[in-house]
Amino acid sequence: MRNHSYTSTHILAKEGWIYSILALMVFLIAYAFSFFAWFFFLLFLGTVFCYRNPERIAEEDDERCLIAPMDGVVTDISKISLNDNSEALRIVIRKSLFGVGVLRAPLAMTLSDVKNRFGLFMDSSSALFSNLSERKSITCKSQFASIKLVISAGLWSQKMTLFKKAGAFKAGERIGFLRDGEMALLLPLDTRVKVSLSDEVKAGATILGYLAYKDKDDK
């Protein structure tokens, strides 16, 4: 995963600028020579679509709510055991190639630790994906709980991008880019989940659930 400076709010994610320019140049050359110009125009539109960077507004503004960090479909909600013998609630979101690739912070948080596992860029539907794929595990700390984001790159990813920023990310703020793959959120067991299996979620907009209120007087 490459670390890039903090992203902008341009309508097209900067990770796709060079690809979009190249696709546009190829289209113009094909148009000038009347060589399958329609095909290369569709290719240009498809490239722009894959790297779109829309503004998103969360469905709620509760500071304990967990916002979807990635566009995709919920493929797993389960309790798992971790290496330190503790347990966590896992929510997995799988992204398609044509979903928005911008990753967003699920809540106000800081990135305290990033671990890399080098692997293969492979189909996320493969039975070997969880064991062999390129992966980043990110520990995130908020004022309510620590969570972990496990990002796995799919066949069409080529690379994963994590943005640099001094200080904390706000809930829904852009934190990185992934063209294809999946993300697992490892959450406290008492997290109240709002989504179900096969639900389609939108990064920065859909609410996945809520962190528990630990203090009886906290309202």
Automatic annotation (TrEMBL):
Its EC number is 4.1.1.65. Keywords: Cell membrane, Decarboxylase, Lipid biosynthesis, Lipid metabolism, Lyase, Membrane, Phospholipid biosynthesis, Phospholipid metabolism, Pyruvate, Transmembrane, Transmembrane helix, Zymogen. The keyword Transmembrane helix applies. InterPro entries: PS_Dcarbxylase, PSD-A. Coiled coil: none annotated. It comes from Sulfurospirillum diekertiae. The chain crosses the membrane at residues 21-45. GO terms for molecular function: phosphatidylserine decarboxylase activity. This is Phosphatidylserine decarboxylase proenzyme. GO terms for biological process: phospholipid biosynthetic process.
